[in-house]
């Protein structure tokens, strides 16, 4: 199983980025997919999750209304559209998957760095 995250970079506060997660072996539509992030000196935290078949999404309160998680089941991809980024959003963002509960994912990607400058 491979989860390949991409799309990170440096952006000014208020800007946008779109993260992508290319998934191989497991089928996105059959799993609970999610994005997590880990800021310097902090623990990894859940950011957003999606159950593609049911189109059910969930978000941490701090990103609600600004971030959108989505999936392309045909391409086996998961995305995280991040708008109105804030400096506290600076972190390594990870794509993750689990068969039953994305809050405790079994599979992790390698992470992509997002840096938001003030």
Low-confidence stretches: none
Give the structural class. Answer: mainly beta
Rounded to the nearest angstrom, the distance between the terminal CA atoms is: 37 Å
Mean pLDDT: 96
Radius of gyration: 13 Å
How many strand units? 11
Fraction in helix: under 10%
H/E element string?
EEEEEEEEEEE
Principal-axes shape call: globular
Tell me about the largest β-sheet: 7 strands, mixed
Approximate strand percentage = over 45%
Number of helices: 0
Describe this structure in words.
This protein is mostly beta strands. Helices cover 0% and strands 53% of the residues. The protein contains no helices and eleven strands. It has strands at 2-6, 9-12, 17-24, 32-38, 45-51, 56-59, 67-72, 77-82, 91-98, 107-108, 112-117. Strands 2, 4, 5, 6, 9, 10 and 11 form a seven-stranded mixed β-sheet that branches. A four-stranded antiparallel β-sheet has the order 1-3-8-7, with no helix packed on it. The termini are far apart. The relative contact order is 0.32. The model has no long low-confidence stretch (mean pLDDT 96).
